[in-house]
Amino acid sequence: MIARIKGATLSGFLAEIIDIETALSPGLPSFQIVGLADEIINESRERINLAILSIGAKPPNRINNKFVVNLAPADIKKEGSHLDLAIALSFLFISGQLKKLPDDILFLGELGLDGQLKKVNGCLPIVLKAKGHFSAVVVPEENIDEVNFIREIKVFCFRHLTEVVDFIEMRKNHHPIKIRELTTNENNHDLSFIIADEYILRGVSIGTAGRHNFLLYGPPGTGKTLIAQNIVNLLPDLEYDASLEVSQIYSALGILNHGPIIRPPFRAPHHSSSAIAILGGGKDAKPGEITLAHHGVLFLDELAEFRKDVLEGLREPLETGEITIARAKKSIKYPSKFLFVGAYNPCPCGYYGDPEIECKCNLAEINRYQKKISSPILDRIDIYLNVPRLKSEQIFKSNEKNFNNIRENLVKVYEKMKWRYKGEDFNYNSQIPANKIKDYIKLNNKTENFLKTAIDKYKLSLRAVHKILKLARTIADYEEKDEIKIEHLGEALQYRIRESL
After folding, report:
1. Cα(416)–Cα(419) distance, rounded to whole angstroms?
2. Is the pLDDT of residue 474 over 90?
3. Which of 35, 152, 339, 402 is spaced 20 to 30 Å from 272 by Cα?
């Protein structure tokens, strides 16, 4: 006889359903797990032995039989402690200590030595994967906040192995967890403390509206970092599907604490961070900061101080919205659609080009510093904003009215883009693929000739032309215009063509 039960594990942040088959044969007491299990799963034999003993049942090491647990499919690497509960239940059934074993319920949980069910990473993506395949899922009670909003599948939460056994044998009435309604957050952050001139605020709001990457540069202390850190407060709440997508990533890493993520994430890694920390990778091909910033903002302060391999590694994610982490035994594709914001000083001392404070760097130092950011990276930036030094009268000027107007305009642009791209697999102007630019961005003869002249004059790359067109589309939307005019293209070109960085 073979006992069969369903469990699950993670591959990256994606769930993999695992068939757990347990068989016994005559022989000396032994407990073996096969099927490409990692060290954590192999160690589960000791946890399971003591957990089963704690509920008054006979563990594998006290029964004169050989027990073999097979984890299928055998060619998928199984990682983590997710399968502890399912393996323990399959043993109890095959050894005659459990009366039945349901085949339409997925069991998930790590076992403590005393039989307690402990929290596991990735509960959310696993429960979502189980929808449509199982009638119910059993998870540890500590994971309840991650899954108590999921519909179309029953979720049962337990604290101890004994409770799960009682549930299977129907000794007590157990009810699935109550579904809670998701509530959106009112984004009413007061941003009046941010002091910047109208040109900077307009550039930031246009970039935010269309999800256009932008770069803030200028002398130290002009508010570049403050502006960048608060851009996320101008973004609307995540749509339901986007919220689930982001929440699954955080759940898989064990950093989803209080239910699904409603607000767009903001990630600001330090410039000393490694390429693996920012881009993802390592032995286990884990996601990095760019994936944690998915559907949110990735802010790199002191951009020129980041390692060259980190900056060059951003090329593909900025272009495609995803990154592939390839290792000898594993290759995983992670989503990385984020609004990129960079900030840095124009030279090592920070005062190159400042009209009031003299720069102390020589020309060689300035050129060497600026060349740390390569042309291919700069070519992927849509908006360059030179943030100047503030005058004394500006510092005490309130921007409350400015930000209220910005929020109103952004809501209008979001609604317009949502309607325009209904049915498409993209949501913002910056995400329009090259093969659909002509469908959504149309120029008349006059505006087309203007753009042709700019292309020849500034030697614009094809990528730059596409970015200017998308940015002009956002500027027209921001101005509540359906037709792209020369002034919209001119403003987009102005943001794009700046003095040497």
Report:
1. 5
2. yes
3. 339
Q: Which of 195, 192, 219, 190 is nearest to 391 (CA)?
A: 195
Domain co-membership, 439 together with 415: no
To the nearest 10°, the Cα dihedral for 45, 48, 50, 56? -140
Angstrom distance (rounded) from CA 208 to CA 425: 19
- The DSSP symbol for 69 reads E
| Nearest partner of 253 among 159, 124, 147, judged by Cα | 124
Does 411 share its domain with 466? no
Q: How far is CA 228 from the centre of its chain?
A: 19
**One domain for residues 297 and 324:** yes
Q: Is 25 helix (H, G, I), strand (E, B) or coil?
A: strand
**Do 261 and 124 contact (CB within 8 A), yes or no?**
no
Domain membership flag for residue 193? no
Q: Are residues 316 and 397 in the same domain?
A: yes
Angle at 297 between CA 377 and CA 219, to 5 degrees: 60
CB 289 within 8 A of CB 323: no
Is position 379 within any domain? yes
Per residue in 162-206, pLDDT tens? Answer: 999 999 999 988 999 999 887 766 566 667 667 778 888 899 999
Task: Name the percent of the chain in helix, strand, coil, to the closest 5.
Answer: 40, 20, 40
Tens-digit pLDDT profile for residues 86-101: 999 999 999 999 999 9
Which residue bears the tokens 């109550």? 178
pTM: 0.91
Would strands 297-301 and 266-267 be described as parallel, antiparallel, or unpaired?
parallel
